[in-house]
Amino acid sequence: MANVIVIGAQWGDEGKGKITDLLSRSADVVVRSQGGVNAGHTVVVRGQTFKLHLIPSGILYPNTECIIGSGTVIDPQVLIEEIDQLKALGVSVDNLYISQTAHVTMPYHRQIDRASEESRGEYKIGTTGRGIGPTYADKSERTGIRILDLMNPKHLHKQLKWTIDYKNAILEKLYNLPPLDSERIIKEYLVYAERLRSHVVDSSLKIYQAVQEKKNILFEGAQGTLLDLDHGTYPYVTSSNPIAGGACVGAGVGPTTIDRVIGVAKAYTTRVGEGPFPTELNGNIGNLLCDRGAEFGTTTGRRRRCGWFDAVIGRYAVRINGLDCLAITKLDVLDELEEIKVCVAYKIDGVICNHFPTNASAFANCEPVYKILPGWRQSTTECRSLDDLPKEALRYLQFLAEIMKVPIAIVSVGASRDQTIIVEDPIHGPKRALLDANGIPVDMF
Ligand code: IMP
Ligand code: MG
Fold first, then answer.
1. pLDDT of residue 305
2. What residues flank ion ligand 2 with Cβ within 5 A?
3. Dihedral through CA 75, CA 78, CA 83, CA 89, nearest 10?
4. Which of 65, 177, 193, 346 has an alpha carbon within 20 to 30 A of 288's alpha carbon?
5. Is the minimum distance from the CB of 128 to ligand 1 under 6 angstroms?
6. How crowded is residue 111: how many other Cβ atoms within 10 Å of its Cβ?
7. Which of 28, 41, 113, 149 is catalytic?
8. Is the peptide bond before 235 cis (omega within 30 degrees of 0)?
9. How far apart are CA 266 and CA 282, in angstroms?
């Protein structure tokens, strides 16, 4: 048995949905710890596509309990739509649990998110416009509405009356927008409350009980390392902590509960929204990656910016999250390329830098140093073991593992569950045993 965190090792959209879906097979409980409906996970099962924003992908397994933890922010309208979509497709949501201390996204959060982005001009972040930042801001400011509040009509009434007056002042005076009608919002949200009531629990306690019962728990990350509020590319980040440590905080478990941390990274890099991106490709190759990888946001439909794999970011993700191993996704997207570049270091003011720079302007102005590897120019989508891979593809993976000093446990070569190469069992396989004294992966392939 093991308790495992799966996190994004880049800027989100690494394909965590597919990996957590695969690992959910052996999980009794799947927990979302942070983020909200800014996240979008696409999972393809038996040709059916599921787009999930808040509900953990474990919901597709009938016996897996799914918990939306207290570090998340919940837009009840979207959550209910998601529940209804799953039900319509014949998926039961009886095993869905919602933390009573999670914060609730309100209409004014969405409005303020969009209005503030507009007013930022060249300083805009490129948010998903889902009200995530303002919901977390209210949480920190201690003016947030929690699921608990939603479940108590009298309390909600009292709390919202004051809050909506306050938010209306901001909407009207700062952004020149019409005020919101508090009675209408209260009425709307009380309907949501009744739809969600039977799912609401003390989630930290529920997870603790699962730990005591020695169940397998999977902590499913949303977004990615570089979108982390504290350790990402601030200010172009999300407002929560998608790194491994954030999973403990958001779920309400101690770090000693965690046995393994698995990072997910694409075989190249993508980013949505604003902010520096050293290996970004603007020409034909960028378009090819975007088209072959279907790189359009699950939540906003925005075209994702595409670029080469950045191993400086990879090493940073290994460090910040304490990664035990990596899952590399979308290897097949590179199938047609003649040669493939990997960023191995940055040049900052003429000086080679192997570490991710925490100084935002150094990062914005760095120049990637590339290692060029030969492409394989054949399809990998039917490969089911490392032996099936063209030797250049194997070499590419080996190079990534070596340069980031982390074993690769899973390789994904397509969207469906079976298009997967399991190199080693990411949960029960040897923990870091594949590294030699110099930290170089050995006997991996
Ligand atoms: P917010 O989370 O909507 O506030 O957006 C902040 C930044 O995080 C923007 O650059 C978004 O594009 C990015 N972002 C938020 N959620 C995701 C995600 O699930 N995948 C990729 N990028 C995301
Ligand atoms: Mg996504």
1. 97
2. 13, 40, 298
3. -160
4. 346
5. yes
6. 20
7. 41
8. yes
9. 18
